Structure formats: structure tokens, C-alpha cells
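Re: that chain you flagged

S.,

Sorry for the slow reply, it's been a week of failed gels. I finally had a moment to sit down with the sequence you sent. For the record, here it is as I used it:
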Amino acid sequence: MEIIKTIVTDLFKETHLEITKLPQSGSPRIYYRISFRDHQPVIGVYNSDVKENEAFFGFTESFRNKKIAVPEIYFITPNRQYYIIEDLGDITLFEFLKQDRGQEGLGEATIEWYKRVLEELPKIQLLNEKDIDFSLCYPRAAFDRQSMNWDLNYFKYYYLKLVHAHFDEQELEDDFNRLIQFLLEADAQYFMFRDFQSRNIMLHQGKPYFIDYQGGRRGPLQYDLASLLYDGKADIPEKIREELYHFYIDQLARYIEVDKTKFETYYIGFVLIRIMQALGAYGYRGYYEKKSHFLQSIPYALQNIRYILRNKTLPISIPTLWNLLDFISKEGNLSSPLEQSKHLTITIQSFSFKVGIPTSESSHGGGFVFDCRFLPNPGRIPEYKEYNGTDLAIQQYFSQYEVVEQFKRSVEEIIIMAVDNYLEREFQQLMINFGCTGGQHRSIYFAEWLAKKLQERYPQVQINLNHIQFPELSKRFVPNQ
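Prediction finished late last night. Pasting the C-alpha cells below so you have them in one place:
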């Protein structure tokens, strides 16, 4: 905050100012509102991910050159981690629709705002290489096979497994691949905003402004439309959703020729992959990061899945995935860990310090962070680079060091004292984090070791083991009651 204060003081020559940290959502970016006595407020931003920042800076310049309403950037520090931007206020499209919602689901004023947004969407999507620098796209240049795989695995590991959905791994992977192959057939030479939803649209000075587009990349037209119209908590009634869908098609047809049948065929597929990606995000943010407001969006996403399954079809066979979607639409809601049990739940996490220390939003905020970076690092040895802390080779590597055993004894002594105390006082949550440089070897090894120790000593306790950099290794240990 002090760096932000220094920047704005020098930039605006104002000494009378007030800095307020704004609530964080799913992003690790930190936002501050800076209010002045003699100047309009501005927003200060800190983000350590320079590549993501460069995408935001470059896309902002391109959008503003094309008269697309996005915030103005006033200043960027030389290290590209801090920047000052225009303050667009607090009224998002989502906040507006909540206040304007009527018996039919959306008020007339909200519908008109959606139409104004959809008039702008094709202008964004049809930007080409002359208008925008696609080399800035991060973390992927396009919504390609790798991007889709990431989203579907996010759904599998952070939603399906958390709701205990039973499935054959290979059959599900086969269906994922069939769905991806189908979606890759769609024309994808456009600019895809990626997270085009009501919370990323600000209503400012009588028009819609767009934010949070640093994840933009090449992609299909259908994805952003699906993101907006199947935006979970916006809860757009189907009749209005259809009206808005056709309104968008008419707007798009002003610029390019549209094969309406072909467009809708792929659209349904992108609706499904968008909803699955969102469910994975809700599971991760809501369950593991304890941000319970994300869990509130799950029933709306499941409702949207039910509608798709009952009213739409795809020209491909994905029976395992289709049946899983049917299962979760009926029985797959994910409640907060705090709601699931009044007993103690211990969350053990491995993480990378490069990404940042996980935060806890439990009622008391209790927990530990153990820094494993001072211990021997197998990641520096070439033959161990592809292994992780669950592999026997890594376990054998650590077994030769007395300092590792000393560390274990110290950790175990501290944690047992804490768990015994938490049980006695009937606390519900304890978080224990192990961090190392990459979140691959040391942190995973010690998280796995401690989970096993605590499972043996406290069989009545729920243990959630979360490997942040390797979510496919995460697991839960159900308590014996």
C-alpha cells in the first residue's frame, strides 16, 4: 500500500488522500481505491504476474484505439507490477440486475443494458492482427486443445471428485477428447475475451465498460456469448436468454456472414465447457480457498446444465460425460466444508511460493505455513525433475537426510498440540500449508506425510489434502464416525 501511496502522490501531486483496499474475488491481483480531496478517485493495482499485466496493458491500448470502453491507464511502474487506472465506480451489470430484477427474472432496464453490451461484443471479437497484438495472450495464445484440457481437468478434479461422482477415468477422458475435437472444428480466429460475464462489465457514465480481459486469446465467437448468457448467479430466464441470443446473432450479422445453424451447434458445446470450467472454479475457490460466496453460484450452474440436457443435443456421442452431467444436475451440489460438519476439518496444502501463500477464510483464520525451502531440494537434480513428492524416488531421496527427520519431528509436535486444542475447543477448521519453490517436491512430500500421520492419529477428523500446483494428486480422507 505504501508503494501505491507514493506513486499517486507523485503522479497527482496530492497529499490529502485516502486509500481503501477493495475486496478480492478469484484473482490474486490486489486493488486499491485512492480518493483525493481535489481529484477524481483512481484505482491502484498490484499484480506480481508481469506477463498477465503486459497482456492487460497491450489489450487496453488496442481497445481504446478502437473506441471500446475500457479503463484508462494513467501510470505503470518500471517493474510492470504496479499500475494506476481509471476508477469506473462500483456498479457492475450484475449489481444492476440484482436491483432491477422483477417477477420475470430481469427488469426491462437490465435487458436493455444486456443489448447494449451485445452490440459491443462483436466489435471486440472481430479485432484482428492489425488491431491487437496476439503475441501478448497469456497464459495461452489461443483457446486450443491444451486450454480445453485444463478447463475439463479443473472440472474433474475440483468438482466431480469433490461431489464423489463415480466414473471410469478412461471413458471420461475419451469423452473429453471427443468434445474437444468437436469444439476445435469451430472457427476460432477471433479475439476471445475469456471471462465475459456480468461482474466484468461496469456501468459508467451511461455506457458499458469492460474490465478483466487480460486472459483474452484467439478463440471462437460462441464462447464469450455462452459466458455472458449462462453466467451463473445472473440467472437469466430462458425466454430472455433466447431473445438476447438472437439479438447478438443479428448484431454479428452486421459485420460478417453468419451460418445460424452451424453457429448454434457449436454454441451448445461451448456452453457446456464454459459451465464445467465455472464449476471447477467454484469448487476450487469455494471449497479449498474457503470463499463461500463462490459456492452460491453452483445451484444456478446445475440448473443451466439441466436445461441443456433436456432441451439441446450435440452431434457427437459423449455418454459418460453426459451421464455425469445428469448426475450432478440432480445430486451434485457442493456445500461449504463449514456446512458439511460441525466437527474439525483439517486442510493440508502444498503450494509454490512463486504463486503465493494460500489464504484462509474460516471463522477464526487459524493455521500454519511451513517453509520447506531450506531443506534439500531434489528439483535441482536432473533425474528427479519430472517426479513429485508422492513418488518413491523422492521419498527415498529425503530418507537419507537427518534434517528432514528433525523437521518432521518438530512439525508433528506443533501440529499435535494444535489439533488436540482445536478438538477440545470444538473448532471446525485448521489449515496447514507446506511451501517450497515450485510446489512439486518438498511441499507435496511433507503434505502427504502429515496427512497420513494425522489420519492415523485422528481417524474421526476430516482431512482434505490439496496440492495447489498438482490438483490431480489432491484427495480427501473421510472420517470414521
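What I noticed first: Residues 2-86 form a domain with the Phosphorylase Kinase; domain 1 fold (CATH 3.30.200).

Talk soon,
D.
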